[in-house]
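Lab notes, practical 5.
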Amino acid sequence: MIVHPNAKINLGLNIVRKRDDGFHDIETVFYPIPLNDVMEITRDKKTSFIASGIDIPSNGGDNLVMKAYSLLKQDFELEELKVHLLKVIPIGAGLGGGSADAAFMLKALRDYCRLPLSNDQLKTYAAKLGSDCSFFIDNQASYAWGRGELMKPLDLWLKGYHLLLVYPNLHISTAQAYSRVTPKAPPINVQDVVTLPLEEWKDKLTNDFEISAFEIYPELKKLKDDLYAMGATYTCMSGSGSSFFGIFKEQKELNNEMKKYSHWWVEL
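Output from the prediction step:
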C-alpha cells in the first residue's frame, strides 16, 4: 500500500494565553496543501522502517511513524510490516510533515489490516502522537484552539489560487519561537477573518510567531515583503516557522534572491 501524507499551512496563529501546565493556548486555521511525502507499507518477516529523501532525526522506533504503529499494536494484532518513507516535506518548517506521516500511518494501518476504527477513533490515537496530528485524519480546513488539538471543520476553499511555499533552510526552535511573544487575545478571531474576502486578510490574519522570527532572523521579514512585492494577495509564516507562503491569483516569476531558497508552487 502506498499513501501520500500532505503538508498543512497555518492561516494566522494567535498565542492567546499561557496555561498553568506550562503550555500555551493558541488559535489558528489549518489548511491542507498538496506537498506530499510518499510512504509504502508491505508485509515482511519483521517490522522495519527505512527513510530516504530529506534526512530525518531518527529511523528507529522513536520516529512518529513507528510510534503510530506501536500505538495501534497495543490494542490490535498487527502484521509485521516494512515501512519505507520518502521524505519531501521539510522538517521543522511549520508544515506538520511528521504529524502527517503519523496520521497517514494510522489510516493506512486501519485499511491495510482491516481494523474496525472510525475516523473519530483514529483521532483519539492521533492526539496521543502530537497536538496537530489528528488534523490529518479528516484532512480538511479546520479551526484549531487549545494547544492546537481541539478542532472543528470550516467551510473554507481556496481552489483556483496558487500557493508559493518558501523554506529558507532555517530551524526555529519552539523556545525561540515563544521567547519574544506576549500572549494576548486577538481583536478578531481567526475563524472570523477567514470568512472575509482574501484581499482583507493582510492586516487582520497574523502569526504571532513572526515577532520572534523577524527579530532573530531579519531576512525572514524581507522574505515576507518580497512575497507581497511579487503580487501575493496574502502571505504568512506557517506555524512556528520558518517556512513562508504566499497566496497568488496566478503563478509569478521568482526573483534571484528567492530562488536561493527551497520553494514549491502548488495549485490549491
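Observations recorded by the TA: The domain at 162-267 is CATH 3.30.70.890 (Alpha-Beta Plaits). The mean pLDDT is 93.
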